[in-house]
Amino acid sequence: MIDLHYVATANGLKVAIALREMGLDYRVINYDLFAGAHLTVAFKQINPNSKLPAIIDHAPADGGAPFAVFETGAILQYLAEKTGLFLPADLRGRSLVQQWLTWQVAGLGPMHGQAHHFLRYAPERFDYASARYANEALRLLKVMDYRLGQADYLAGEYSIADMAAFPWVGGAALIDIDIAELPALAAWVERVGAREAVQVALAARDTAVPAEYMQKHAVLTPEQWSNMFGEKLLAASDLR
Ligand SMILES: N[C@@H](CCC(=O)N[C@@H](CS)C(=O)NCC(=O)O)C(=O)O
Question: pLDDT tens digits for 96-125?
Fold first, then answer.
């Protein structure tokens, strides 16, 4: 049994998809980020970075005590190694998955995250930052479109790299990017989106996600702002 400490955002969805794809038994512990539910000493024991998602594996492969894993790239690799699925054993296949997974967690996710921040959450308009991150968000999707013109999936075969990238691509419309203009990427979205595990994870997200997360332009209360981006989030780094 695995505990999934979860919020139904792009990062959360990556792991929900992987757990379903791998047929693992898991239980979801939902957090309301806007209410600051993740900013506790208890959650910091699971993820010292106070971010979601994180998992606790109650039956790790070494037979030892329950094991917590944070950072989606590390979680996806941990689950793939646990099950022997979606991460090939051969040198080249494995490296390709790791390259695209690293590209997602170090590039696509953070850049799209900043684009969402400045275009959707910033209380005032910052033209330079908005343009910088919107341009980078689009450029990275063009990188995917180029790659997916060569192969059906990022690493050749469907893998944890596709699971990592899919939820972020799904949010592109919210930052005014039309995927239809990138045909190989659009075909990949159809292919990945048709998978049963992905559909089940998306359906669960659509019924669980608070409406605030899906607003194009979020209007947060001062309390929500503090929990997400302000003093309460900063104060969490001093929690002991
Ligand atoms: N690099 C982290 C990013 C995790 C992350 O930023 N999670 C967001 C939700 S998508 C979060 O917890 N935000 C809450 C906050 O910043 O207070 C990962 O890949 O796991």
Answer: 999 999 999 999 999 999 999 999 999 888
Going by CA atoms, what residue is nearest to atom 17 of ligand 1? 228
Mean pLDDT of 189-201: 97
State whether CATH 1.10.730.10 applies to domain 91-195.
Answer: no
Token duo for residue 154: 């990022």
Residue with CA closest to ligand 1 atom 15: 228
pLDDT surpassing 80 at residue 190: yes
Q: What is the pLDDT of residues 73-92, one digit of tens each?
A: 999 999 999 999 999 999 99
CATH code 3.40.30.10 region(s) in the chain: 2-85+199-212+221-236
Helices (H), ranges, 125-210:
127-148, 160-170, 183-193, 196-208
Ligand 1 atom 9: residue of nearest CA: 52
Whether ligand 1 lies within 6 angstroms of the CB of 9 is answered as yes
| Angle, vertex CA 171, rays to CA 166 and CA 177, nearest 5 | 110
Rounded to the nearest angstrom, the distance between the alpha carbon of 192 and the centre of ligand 1 is 23
Instruction: Please state the CATH superfamily assignment of the domain spanning residues 2-85+199-212+221-236 in this structure.
Output: Glutaredoxin (3.40.30.10)
Ligand 1 centre to CA of 149 (Å) is: 30
CATH 1.20.1050.10 segments of the chain: 91-195
